[in-house]
């Protein structure tokens, strides 16, 4: 690995409240309490559950908490703090948040929420976190251009995390794709972009656990290479 | 390691708003917005910063977000999900939250906050999370009774995480103590209870990163032993 590790949280359950449910009682009361227009509020199952039933793919949506946990687990690692991981959050609505090198994510959920709401509402190509519209294909093909893309999924072939890290280290511009959603599997579009689909444990693991283990093993493999 | 791994998050920055600042504007407005009495609200630097300056040890307090992240990083691991980790949260006000085996912590910060507020307000010796008063000494001596206690701190001797995991595995009833606060060091009382003070990286790492790496390495060492 001569370059950085690209880390993509794909199809992430991070979006603003969609139009269909802006007038639902759950969203309206949240909007009133916060004094923020519903269209600028993050969809959150823990607050808007009753309104979410009628959304398409409802079970994969509205989990900013999960996205937050996964981002913290990556951005707290020495590999990231050394500037060796590029982080992209691709959302289920085809927005992308791209972190500038070593940018820290607020650990407070309130601050993370405020940041995500601002980025998704206003989109911006400046600042420490860029926000722009792009599907997973466009993100991978145009922005990341990886030599090899490793997708993490329970549908993948089981491999040891150390082995996976070795395979990642053997690539010039490797990319790891982890699902940023709570249930279900990658969409066909995402699967078509993945060169190797693997799982690192017999249990299904949460995104933040997968992310922290993969980054950690790559960090260890990189340290060995540098010795 | 014949028994479970004991994991203690010590001196955690998790407490209800203390009396001294109940009437501060920051707390009063938070209380009004939520419709909850200030004395039953978690102290949170991201909301009560302006009022916190006059608290003793202010810089170590009011970080429930950090406690939440550390707990998620432990309770999401297969070792924990297999029932092989006992988790205790000791707070800076000498309360203890004790998780029953395999108990999951809400990933949503709102739900975590509600749970912690209820537990700290009401204390209970029943349910999936027990809450009781105990100092770190009482917790370790009476509840955990570890064969050996490993403290994680930047003040400790540097060791590899794999080596640390091996030392942990060599003990019958090992205990790992990680600081649940953002800055500063363990109190003297905590240090006096630690048999080995170690650090696992040259960088200071956040509690959730330390926790996830230590548990992961113990999990790997345990899998080797069981093979």
For this entry, give a set of tags:
globular; Alpha/beta knot; 9 helices; 227 residues; alpha/beta; 40% helix; 7-stranded mixed beta sheet; homodimer; 2 domains
Layout of helices and strands:
Two copies of one chain form a homodimer.
Chain A: E1 5-12, H1 25-34, H2 45-52, H3 64-75, H4 78-81, E2 85-91, E3 95-99, H5 109-122, E4 129-133, H6 136-144, E5 148-158, H7 161-169, E6 174-179, H8 188-191, E7 196-199, H9 207-226
Parallel strand pairs in A: 1-2, 1-6, 5-6, 5-7
Antiparallel strand pairs in A: 2-3, 3-4
What does it look like?
2 copies of one chain form a homodimer. With 227 residues, chain A is α/β, with parallel strands linked by helices. Helix content of chain A is 40%, strand content 20%. Chain A contains 9 helices and 7 strands; from the N terminus they run E-H-H-H-H-E-E-H-E-H-E-H-E-H-E-H. The first copy, chain A, has a 7-stranded mixed β-sheet, with helices on both faces. In chain A, helix 3 (64-75) runs parallel beside helix 9. Chain A is globular. The model of chain A has no long low-confidence stretch (mean pLDDT 96). The A-B interface holds A 33, 44-47, 63, 65-66, 68-69, 72-73, 76-78, 81, 106-111, 201, 203, 205-206, 208-209, 212-213, 216 and B 33, 44-47, 63, 65-66, 68-69, 72-73, 76-78, 81, 106-111, 201, 203, 205-206, 208-209, 212-213, 216.
